[in-house]
Amino acid sequence: MKLRRFGLGVLSSALLWIGCTPPNPQVTPPAQIAPVHFYEGKTIHLYIGFSSPSEPDRAARLIFDHMSPHIPGRPRVIVSNMPGAESIISANYLYNVAKPDGLTVGAFAGDPALWKDAAAKGRIKFEPRKFQWIGGIEDGATKRRLFLSLPPGTPERLAEILRIAFLNSIKSPPVLAGLGRTIIPMTSKEVETIVNEFSKEPGIGPR
């Protein structure tokens, strides 16, 4: 299966840009919204919908590397790859199989053309609006997107911890430096707006 390119250099330069312009400077400390030590001693499983090595895989790992220090309790993170159907298989798994316990995160493509094609072929086994979105990134040139999400039904207080960790991580100085196209950070609300548009397409909406 041919994977679309999602450049690591692009993401690196994006982090430089992100560090200069935080999307939400008023960040609420996680301790105010959930038990401080919920993640202490626990393990988060990150499922990436692309094979390794690949550019989307490296992008997802880099994002979570930046997020991890901002999660209270500093949980262990185990990364697994679940490629197939341009990451639709991993999205189906997150929706239908993964436990909504705050310990499973999915990283998959948020591409209108891809989702429309998958819906036409009957491959969409989820309702996008029910995911607990964490955030995402968009390539400013190609408009390719990578979304991070929790399974439907995940407690809101736990989802908010990871949303805040994501926002704090993209404010931090980048670990890597490089040149490339601009990458635009996306908050969970911005992802929801895009998903609501997706959900108007036949085969993607309420089921």
Describe this protein's structure.
The protein has 207 residues and is α/β, with parallel strands linked by helices. The protein has a single domain (8-198), classed as Bordetella uptake gene, domain 1 (D-Maltodextrin-Binding Protein, domain 2, 3-Layer(aba) Sandwich), CATH 3.40.190. It has six helices and six strands, in the order H-E-H-E-H-E-H-E-E-H-E-H. It has helices at residues 8-20, 55-67, 88-96, 112-120, 156-171, 188-198, and strands at residues 43-48, 76-81, 104-109, 132-139, 145-150, 183-187. Helix 2 (55-67) crosses helix 5. The longest helix is centred in the C-terminal third of the chain and has 16 residues, at 156-171. It is globular and about 45 Å long. The two termini are 29 Å apart.
